[in-house]
Amino acid sequence: MNANIFEKANQIIKSCDAAYLGVIDENGFPSVCAVSPIKTENILEIFFSTNIGSNKEKRLRKSNRASICFRSGGNNITLVGEAEIITDQKIKSEYWLDWFKDHYQGGETDPNYCIIKFTTQRMSLWVDNESAELTLPDLLSIQSCCGCICDGCEYKESHECKGCLVNKGNQFWGECDLAKCCIKKGYVHCGECPDIPCESMRNMADDDKPKGARIVVCQAWAARNK
Q1: Three-class SS state of 35
Q2: Could you point out which of 67, 93, 160, 187 has its C-alpha 20 to 30 Å from the C-alpha of 173?
Q3: What CA–CA distances, in Å, run from 44 to 14, 28, 121, 194, 224?
Q4: Before 137, cis peptide (omega within 30)?
Q5: What distance in Å separates the CA atoms of residue 11 and residue 16, rounded to the nearest whole number?
Q6: CA-to-CA distance for 77 and 92, rounded, in angstroms?
Q7: CA angle 56, 9, 78 (to 5 degrees)
Q8: Contacts of 151 (CB under 8 A, 6+ apart)
Q9: Is the peptide bond before 210 cis (omega within 30 degrees of 0)?
């Protein structure tokens, strides 16, 4: 797993207008249906809408265990986690989309309208012929200053690289100015810095595929470790 495949997965789910949601039915069997994601930022949290009284809503009330699958071309994103039914009006209004009017005549205050918030606990990714299996703690484990996920780095074993956090910015290839800057400012990683992405960070992230992948990882670390 590395920062690149994480951001590739994020881009894939943002481009998908449909996904498959699996829940546990009344008899303990998996039940799968097609759903439309709304305002998805990354694979850590996914939001959907549904009706109060729908099979999805009733089943998730009884068991919040769920799974989501996104597929685009030959790429597959499978997420396993927990789902929560949200009826708070502020959140319902935040995630309201105009086309929902076709289903909820009362608009965003329609009592039958609710939100499903899915929180990922583990994931199986197959993106551009590269696979990754990891849990949420794996992904949110801070491994570098710049957002690199060192567990997926080829140099970790071949060069016995312990990473910039352990080596305090002194890498096997030399001194990392970005890590030194981060450490000097007293931050654990660049996501804690209000200047992210600074020019140095942008220049480094230009080599990511897709561009800026490590910036997204840093921002995810900052958001989930507050």
Answers
A1: strand
A2: 187
A3: 12, 26, 8, 22, 9
A4: no
A5: 9
A6: 26
A7: 40
A8: 1, 138, 143
A9: yes
Tell me the Ramachandran region of residue 28: left when phi exceeds 0, alpha when psi lies from -120 to 50, beta otherwise.
Answer: left
Residue 153 three-state SS: coil
* DSSP H helices in the chain: 3-15, 55-62, 89-94, 136-140, 155-158, 164-167, 177-184, 199-205, 213-224
pLDDT band at residue 121, thresholds of 50, 70 and 90? very high
Q: Cα(40)–Cα(95) distance, rounded to whole angstroms?
A: 10
Neighbour tally for 212: CB within 10 Å: 17
pLDDT tens digits, 95-120? 999 999 999 999 999 999 999 999 99
Phi, psi (degrees; rounded to nearest 5) at 222: -65, -40
**Residue entry with tokens 């929560």:** 84
Structural domains of the chain, with CATH = 3-134 (2.30.110.10), 141-224 (no CATH)
**Residue 38 tokens, joined:** 């709304």
User: Using alpha carbons only, what angle is made at residue 40 by residues 37 and 41, rounded to the nearest 5 degrees?
Assistant: 170
What's the pTM value of the predicted model, to 2 decimals?
0.80
Assign 3-state DSSP to the chain and report helix, strand, coil percentages, each to 5: 35, 30, 35
pLDDT tens, residue by residue, 21-77: 999 999 999 999 999 999 887 889 999 999 999 999 999 999 999 999 999 999 999
